[in-house]
Recover the amino acids of this structure.
């Protein structure tokens, strides 16, 4: 990619020197390098106000994050060689971590490839490109993946809403092989059918795998509620551990059909029930019916997608946890998650505690989980540490208040 200079204002290089990789539009010296002159995805060399060279990156003048730094070595510009090197490094980590080839292979900034996500299902790769710069590199990205992994199938899951923010078209396209339909992956002792071209995200949520396994250490729970269950990984794990009954809640009929099929696949169908509808409405109906569960699992989609949604999204998290706690039996376990990177770990815990006070529960935090190691966090980019999962015990003896 042919690159052009992108010059920063005075003292705006400090975050980049500390390791961050994003440049915001208000940090650019637009007199020296007018953003209007840049094309979306344009390769740039990021330069401090006094001329210090900072790195190779790419720009998008129409985005608040107007540039992303990709390489800090002047001799290593963005191109085929760099992409192959980064993919190989990503693969080496996963091969250390996993026996079976089912994992997130590339995780954006965490793997030095901002704007690129690749999930691996054996010989099938599901690829998401979310930035204009990486979109320009798409042919080189696909070539690097083919060179390093020799897959038989690649699907572009470019239906992520982030593409709209970057001014990119959305769609799902097979670029290698045809759609094989549902494939089977294993998590622990369980088998799940997944559709990489048709499910949520890229078909599976690998980021919660370690947290789902962690619930086993708390032993079997007799009655379990799995809210926003998708294909049932949390609840079926609880059923396999010995739960007598598991109720699954989701707003998508297709997800609940997947739960039923996966339960049958693992000979657990006799223990499950599915409840279709909006999570808040279903939880209120269960509360009104006097239902109680020994374990309540809340794993909703991100309620805070943009900074301006933070206040309303935080209220939604509190409301959901309040309803979940209202269904929890004394001594029961609440497993609650947020994947909103705009909501910090500390703020999310405060939100759950606020819900507990409203329902007059006393909670003990037993375990705090995060995304798995195939979703590496960039130490200088706190936004990459997005997943929070808390395991909290409701102390026996506290009186639950049914306030909505």
């Amino acid at each position: 990619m042919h690159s052009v200079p992108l010059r920063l204002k005075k003292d705006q290089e400090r975050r980049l020197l500390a390791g961050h990789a994003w440049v915001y539009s208000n940090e650019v010296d637009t007199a020296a390098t007018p953003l209007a002159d840049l094309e979306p995805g344009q390769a740039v060399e990021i330069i401090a106000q006094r001329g210090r060279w900072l790195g190779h990156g790419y720009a998008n003048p129409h985005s608040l994050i107007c540039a992303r730094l990709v390489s800090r070595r002047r001799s290593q510009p963005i191109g085929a060689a760099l992409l192959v090197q980064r993919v190989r490094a990503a693969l080496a980590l996963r091969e250390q971590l996993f026996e079976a080839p089912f994992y997130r292979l590339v995780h954006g900034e965490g793997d030095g490839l901002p704007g690129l996500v690749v999930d691996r299902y054996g010989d099938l790769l599901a690829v998401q490109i979310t930035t204009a710069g990486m979109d320009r590199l798409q042919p080189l990205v696909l070539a690097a993946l083919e060179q390093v992994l020799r897959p038989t199938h690649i699907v572009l899951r470019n239906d992520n809403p982030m593409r709209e923010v970057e001014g990119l078209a959305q769609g799902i396209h097979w670029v290698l092989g045809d759609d094989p339909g549902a494939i089977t992956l294993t998590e622990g002792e369980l088998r799940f059918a997944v559709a990489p071209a048709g499910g949520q995200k890229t078909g599976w949520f690998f980021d919660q795998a370690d947290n789902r396994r962690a619930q086993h250490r708390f032993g079997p729970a007799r009655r379990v509620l799995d809210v926003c269950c998708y294909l049932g990984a949390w609840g079926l794990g609880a059923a396999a551990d010995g739960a007598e009954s598991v109720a699954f809640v989701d707003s998508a009929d297709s997800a609940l059909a997947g739960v039923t099929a996966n339960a049958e696949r693992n000979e657990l169908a006799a223990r499950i029930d599915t409840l279709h509808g909006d999570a808040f409405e279903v939880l209120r109906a269960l509360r009104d019916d006097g239902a109680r569960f020994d374990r309540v699992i809340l794993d909703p989609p991100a309620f805070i997608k943009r900074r301006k949604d933070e206040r309303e999204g935080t209220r939604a998290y509190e409301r959901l946890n309040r309803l979940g706690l209202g269904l929890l039996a004394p001594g029961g376990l609440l497993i609650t998650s947020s994947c909103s990177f705009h909501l910090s770990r500390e703020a999310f815990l405060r939100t759950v505690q606020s819900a507990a006070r409203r329902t007059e529960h006393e909670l003990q935090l037993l375990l705090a989980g995060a995304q798995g190691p195939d979703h590496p966090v960039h130490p200088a980019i706190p936004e990459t540490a997005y997943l929070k999962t808390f395991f909290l015990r409701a102390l026996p003896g506290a009186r639950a208040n049914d306030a909505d």
Q: What stands out?
A: The first strand starts at residue 3 and ends at 7. The chain has a mean pLDDT of 95. Residues 3-71 form a domain with the Archaeosine Trna-guanine Transglycosylase; Chain: A, domain 4 fold (CATH 2.30.130.10). The radius of gyration is 23 Å.
